[in-house]
Hints:
Chain A is of the alpha/beta class. Helices cover 46% and strands 16% of the residues of chain A. The first copy, chain A, has helices spanning 21-33, 45-54, 77-83, 88-97, 110-121, 156-173, 195-204, 217-222, 232-257, 261-281, 307-322, 325-334; strands at residues 7-12, 37-43, 64-66, 103-106, 131-138, 141-146, 180-184, 210-215, 227-229, 289-292, 298-300.
Amino acid sequence: xxxxxxxxxxxxxxxxxxxxxxxxxxxxxxxxxxxxxxxxxxxxxxxxxxxxxxxxxxxxxxxxxxxxxxxxxxxxxxxxxxxxxxxxxxxxxxxxxxxxxxxxxxxxxxxxxxxxxxxxxxxxxxxxxxxxxxxxxxxxxxxxxxxxxxxxxxxxxxxxxxxxxxxxxxxxxxxxxxxxxxxxxxxxxxxxxxxxxxxxxxxxxxxxxxxxxxxxxxxxxxxxxxxxxxxxxxxxxxxxxxxxxxxxxxxxxxxxxxxxxxxxxxxxxxxxxxxxxxxxxxxxxxxxxxxxxxxxxxxxxxxxxxxxxxxxxxxxxxxxxxxxxxxxxxxxxxxxxxxxxxxxx
Amino acid sequence: xxxxxxxxxxxxxxxxxxxxxxxxxxxxxxxxxxxxxxxxxxxxxxxxxxxxxxxxxxxxxxxxxxxxxxxxxxxxxxxxxxxxxxxxxxxxxxxxxxxxxxxxxxxxxxxxxxxxxxxxxxxxxxxxxxxxxxxxxxxxxxxxxxxxxxxxxxxxxxxxxxxxxxxxxxxxxxxxxxxxxxxxxxxxxxxxxxxxxxxxxxxxxxxxxxxxxxxxxxxxxxxxxxxxxxxxxxxxxxxxxxxxxxxxxxxxxxxxxxxxxxxxxxxxxxxxxxxxxxxxxxxxxxxxxxxxxxxxxxxxxxxxxxxxxxxxxxxxxxxxxxxxxxxxxxxxxxxxxxxxxxxxx
Lengths: 345, 345
């Protein structure tokens, strides 16, 4: 990696729902907390400068990668890639690709961030399908689910790729020395599952991972496995379902409080505790999710990312660079032979 | 239906993890609450009599359908059907099939209950794949998910069948006059989804339902749709994931209480409130889930069903009979032409 001094992270300043303000605030905070970090902002220079002026914020203007175009949440990824090479996404990723920075972070259109990263970084040799993970808070820490929506119709050999990429990620970035990996299924027995999951179990077995075979939906939250692999359709539905859990809880608590005076008082007294407990469920606090399988670091955040979330994403990107994550993933993939024939002769 | 007097429900007394005790207690309680209800117990007569003696309970012994065999949780469904025609499952279902009772309830091996019901009742004409629903507590009531695990590799036309069966179930049994139906997917736009879900949307559109197109995981808990259809693999993973939610919450609350004296006190004061709020999340309280698409009423319960859960399941079975659910499902299916070619010419 070409960076002897500070770690340079490019932030897509135009990405999230509250861009560029939350992005700028997160970037400044991240730099404050880590003196060996340098954030570069990819985005419309005039808009960034306007926020800096209005909020009376200090940021080195020479670290703005001026980008005349913006990829919106509604843009179709492939079309955007064709038509928006002047966007903060394209310019920011190319800046990293060319060795001028070490990692890229965006809270923008997930599909577009993925497509641009794939086209600009290219895939790691041996990987057919890059994957996006999601960190699920569970008993004892986190379970990471791959794929959480990068592809909808994953095949069995893709799940095998996710298993290798995911377990290296968990080892390096989540401090699990020997991460356990499971295939998400409908029962623990090997006979249980759909066509893809059953094949995936057979393909993952010989890969030399700490492989637990099938795991069920409940094993995710119980923390019975560090990495759960599944097709991106299933993973995305679980991710979105989990997002709905805090909504439902807040609603149930509100409903309970409305049942009577004393219940209202009781909820009032417990409010700060609830806030603290719920914050652990809010995985947006945990600093974005990795795109794995491409030849460079991209951390993807939720569209509604707060300055805190942006800051955490930047730290995570820097950590991935410092831990030389891409080399470690590349090495792990190179030593495996993924069976693209899905176990068929 | 051949029952002019009381509604007769057959309960599999050998089914659940705490059979036959919880089953007997639930049956007696159900009859106490509904004088027009008569419960029949299918199971080993001596075991049932032993519990009645030991617990000093009153139950009309002539209403025991003596069954020499028991289908266990570990039995493979198809093999059990071949080898255990003397089981409480087979004898109980045949009792209903022959018109001697109106509905069947079991907290036993779900796959076996399904297989036995399918083989003994047979499918409703026009239905290719029966389905098991799951009631998911949500903002404003319940969302029902079909399929929750009856089949793992559902096809698009199965999802169309689930949509019709599920919407009639929601109309009749959940008091939704015009239930909304959605296909579970990874985005609201029609272009989003996997191969099966995208085809399913096209197949469901012409069926004359209150159809909302694609819905996402979060829409389930937000209550944005009354019935969500998906393949049984996805549905089962969500169901099990949801089961894990209360585990995680209890753990987070315990962890919080252990952070210090005052936090412990606070949790202690809020304990009864938490119990009341969590009880709404515990869908085992809601009386089992329906097996739809077969020519008779079967309500399936969780293996760990309490007497309360058993009682609620019996009431639900009686309600389904009184509302003439099977005729209404049969009628709804007869008026539709499911495209078994999956939209292909």
